[in-house]
Amino acid sequence: HADTAMYEAKAAGKNTARFFQHEMESTVKSKLALENELRKAISENQFELLYQPQVCVNTGKMIGAEALVRWIHPENGMISPVLFIPSAEQSGLIHSLGEIVFRTACKELPNFKDIPRISVNISAKQFHAPDFVKKIECILNECDASPENLELELTESAMLADIEDTAVKMKKFRDMGFTFALDDFGTGYSSLTYLKKLPFDVLKIDRSFITDIIESPEHAGIATAVIALGKALNLSIVGEGVETADHLQFLKNEGANSAQGYYISRPISATDLIAWHNQRVAC
Ligand code: C2E
Ligand code: MG
Ligand code: MG
Ligand code: MG
C-alpha cells in the first residue's frame, strides 16, 4: 500500500514537473515571441503617442498633458503599454523604444505651443543608461526642439536604482531646461531624505490612493497626508486617476494643484488634444 502511495506521489511529482516545464517553455516562447514582435515594431515604428490633459483644480485651466505610448499592431490593433513596457525593459529594447517616444513628442511639440508642458515617461533602465543625456540632446537637436515645455516623469524605482547617478543626471537635465515629475508617488519605497535631495518639481499621487478616497476614510487619510507631504516639500501636486467629481473636489479641498484622469479626459490623440485645449480656452 505504502509502495503504491509512493509510486503515485512520484508519478504526480513527475507530472507536475512536466507540467511546469511545459508551462515554462511556453512562457519563454511567448516571451521571446513578444520580444521579436517588439523588435520589429520598433524598426517599423508601429507606435503612437496619446496625450492626457492635466488641469488646475481651481480654475480648470489646462496646465499640461502626459504623453502615453500605444503600440498600433498591424493585426491586433492598439496595445496598452502595460502589456509591453515590462518586456521592453527586460529585453533592453526600452532604450530604442524610449528614443522613439521622446522623438515623437519632440516632433509633435510645435503643435502644442500654447500648452505649458508635455511630460514624457522615462523608465529607470533608460534613465540610467550611460549615454542617456547625450541621446536626449541629439534628439532635441535633430528635432530642433527646446526642453522648456518638456517634463520628464521618473518613478521611485528609477531614483532608488542609483541615487548618485539620478542626482547628477537630473541636474544636467535641469540646466538644459527640463522639469521633473515623480510618478506613481506612494507606491515605491522612497525615503523623505531622497525626496528632499532630488530636484523634483511635481509629485504625482498614484491613482491607487485616489480610487478609494470616498469609500475608505483610511485611503482618504493617506491621500491627505501624501498631499501635505508634497506641499511641505514645495512640490506641485498632481492627483492621478481622477474619475469622479468627488475625486476632483477632494483634491481641491486638500490643496493639490492639478488633476489628471478619466473625469477630465481620457488619453487622446495629438489632434484631439489641440482641439480640447482650444475648446477650454474658448470657454
Ligand atoms: P503612468 O505614467 O502612471 O500613466 C498613467 C496611466 O493611468 C495611463 O495608463 C493612463 O491612461 C491611466 N489613467 C489615467 N487616468 C485614469 C483614470 O482616471 N482611471 C484609470 N483607471 N486609469 C487612468 P497607460 O497609458 O495604460 O500607461 C500605463 C503605464 O505605462 C504608465 O503609467 C507608465 O508607467 C507606462 N508608460 C506609458 N507610456 C510610456 C512611455 O512612453 N514610456 C515608458 N517608459 N512608460 C510608459
Ligand atoms: Mg506617468
Ligand atoms: Mg503615474
Ligand atoms: Mg502608473
Automatic annotation (TrEMBL):
It comes from Kiloniella antarctica. It comes from the Bacteria. This is EAL domain-containing protein. The chain holds residues 286 to 568 of 568 of the full protein. Residues 31-281 form the EAL domain.
